[in-house]
Amino acid sequence: MNSSYFVLVAALLSFATGFFVAAIIWAIKWALIPREEKLMSEKSIQFLHIFSRQDYLRSFSVKRNDKVPSIDELLNKELYQYYHGKN
Amino acid sequence: MEKIDFGTLFQGIGTLFTGGTAMFVARVSLIALGLFLVYLGKKKILEPLLMIPMGLGMATINAAVMVLPGGKQGNLFVDPLVTDTDELFNILQIDWLQPIYTFTFSNGLIACCIFMGIGVLLDVGYMLRRPFLSIFLALFAELGTFAVVPIASSMGMSLGDSASIAMVGGADGPMVLFTSMILSKDLFVPITIVAYLYLGFTYGGYPYLIKLLVPKHIRGIQPPKPKKVNQISSSQKLLFSVVMCVILCLLFPVAAPLFFSLFLGVAVKEADIQPVVDFIKGPLLYGSTFFLGLLLGILCEAHLILNPKIFPLLLLGILALLLSGIGGLLGGYIVYWFTGGKFNPVIGIAGVSCVPSTAKVAQKAVSQVNPHAIILQDALGANISGVITTAIITGLYVTLIPLFT
Asked: Quick check: is B9 in a domain?
C-alpha cells in the first residue's frame, strides 16, 4: 500500500516535472528565435492569408525536384551513417 | 626450521579451503565470472572500458584472499565497510585502492565525473527540436523505474532498496550508483553491479522486444518530416542548460550534484571552451569509467553473492529494464495512434536513456525493415530526454523516500 502510494506520487510528480521541463524548453526556443525570423513568420502568415485561394496557389506552383535532397535529409543521412557505421 | 604448510605459503589457495564449501564455490564462481566478463569485453559484447577492469578486478579480489593479522581473512585492496574514522585513517595507509574508494566512490564524485562526461557528449539540440514529444516518450520509458518499486517491496525489500533496484530501469549507471549510495547503503555494490551488467541487455535483448511487440509493417514507418526545421543555436542550448540546472536544483537539492555535473558538461560544450571539453570527454570520462569498473570488480567479494538478497536483485534488475523497454514502445504506440499511424512506435524504446545505445538499436530495427527510414533524430531526442527524466526521478526518489519511511 505504502509503496504503491509512493510510486503513484512519484510518477505524477515525474510527469509534471517532465512536462514543466518541456514547457521551459519551448519557452527558451521561442525567446531565442532570431528577430528577423519572428518578423518573417508574421509576414509569412499575412502572405499565406492573401494566397490561400487555390487558384493563386496553382498559378505559383512549381514542379518539385525530388532528386535534390534537402538539408534535413542530408543531416539524417550523415547521422545514420555515423551511428550505423560505428556499430 | 619451522614447518611451512602449503596453505600458509600460498594463502590465496589455502583460504579457499578454510572458509567452508559455500565460500569456496562463491570464490571460484566469481573468479570464473570475472574472467568471462574480460572475455565479453574483449569480444566487444559488453563495454570493454568497463568490463575489462571489472572482470579482472572481480577475479583478482577473489583470488587474493589472505590471512590478516588477527587471523581474519581479507585483502589489501579496499575495505568498503569501514566507518570509524580512526580505523579508516589506518586502512587508507594500507589498502591501496582505499583512497580512491573513499574520496571518489563513496561520496559520489566518480558518478558526477561520468555524468559531466555524458553532458559533454550530449547534443541537447535533438531534444530541443521536439521537447514535448521527447519528454513524453522518455517518461513512458521509465515504466520499469516505477513498476518495480511495489514489486520489490512486495518481496520484502525496504522502500530505499526497492527504489534503488528499480532505478536500473532508467538504464543509467551513474544514476543507479548515486541513488543506491543514498538510499541503499548495504546493497549499493550489488545493485550497481547488476545495473552495469544488465546495460548490455539493451543491445542484446531490446531488438527481440521490438520484433515481438511491433509488427513489421509498422516498424518500417518513416515519420513525416517536420514542416519547419529550426536550427538550434548554441546560445539556446547554453541557456537551456543553465536554466534547467538552476530550476532542477531548486526543485531537488538532494540530487543537485548530478544535475550540476550533467548541465555543466552541456554548458562547457555549448560555450565552446574546447580545452575543458577535451579534458572532460577524454581523461576525466575515460579515467572515471575505468576506475568505476575497477572498483566495482574489486567490491565483488565472495560474501557478496552469498547474500540472500542477490538473487531477487538479479531478477528485479532485468524486470526493470524489460518493463522500461515495453513502456517506451507503449509511449511510441500512443503517439502512433494520436498521429493517425504516421509515427514509428519503435522510436519510443529510445526513451530508455542508455545514450546512444537504445537510439542505435531503434534505428537498426527500423533499417532492417525499411532501409530508407531514418528515425535517428527523434530517437536521439527521446534518448537524451531519458537522461533528464531519469535524473528527475532520481531527485524525486531521493527526496521522497525519507518522507515515506
From this structure: no
Tell whether B22 is covered by a domain: no
- Residues of B with CB below 8 A from A29's CB? 128, 131, 230, 232, 236
Q: Does A3 touch chain B (CB under 8 A)?
A: yes
Residue type at B69 in one-letter notation: P
Stretch A27-32: mean pLDDT: 80
Interhelix angle for B188-204 vs B285-298, to 10°?
120
Residues of B in contact with A81 (CB under 8 A): none
Q: Convert the pLDDT of each residue in B360-389 to its tens digit.
A: 899 999 999 988 888 888 899 999 899 899
Looking at CA atoms only, how far is residue A50 from chain B in angstroms?
20
- Domain span including residue B185: 122-228+301-404
The answer to whether A6 faces chain B, any CB pair under 8 Å, is yes
Indicate the pTM of the whole model: 0.81
Query: Which residue in chain B has the smallest CA separation from A6?
Result: B404
Name the H helices within B19-142.
21-42, 48-63, 85-92, 98-100, 109-121, 125-129, 131-140
> How would DSSP label each residue in B222-269?
PPPPPSS-PPPPHHHHHHHHHHHHHHHHHH-GGGHHHHHHHHHHHHHH
Do you find a cis peptide bond into B224, omega within 30 degrees of 0?
Answer: no
Provide, as residue numbers in chain A, all residues whose Cβ is less than 8 Å from the Cβ of B397: 10
Alpha carbon distance B137, B218 (integer Å): 17
Which segments of chain A does DSSP mark as H helices, in order?
A: 2-31, 35-50, 54-60, 71-86
> Does any domain span residue B271?
no
Longest dimension (CA), chain B: 89
Q: Select from B232, B245, B219 the least CA-distant residue to B361.
A: B219
This model of the complex carries an ipTM of: 0.84
Let me know if residue B272 belongs to a domain. no
Residues of chain A in contact with residue B389, where contact means CB-CB under 8 angstroms, are: 14, 18
Nearest CA in chain B to A83: B360
**Closest by Cβ to A25, choosing from B131, B146, B225:** B131
Pick from B64-68, B79-83, B204-208: least confident = B79-83
CB proximity A14 to B under 8 Å:
yes
pLDDT at B18: 86
- How many separate domains does chain B show? 1
- How many angstroms away from the CA of A71 is the closest CA of chain B? 10
Instruction: Point out the residue among B149, B240, B374 whose CB comes nearest to the CB of A28.
Output: B240
Measure the CA–CA gap between B351 and B325, rounded to whole angstroms.
Answer: 8
A70-82 pLDDT per residue, tens: 666 666 666 666 6
Interface of A with B in 19-58 (CB under 8 A): 19, 21-22, 24-26, 28-29, 31-33
Using an 8 Å Cβ cutoff, are B240 and B124 in contact?
Answer: yes
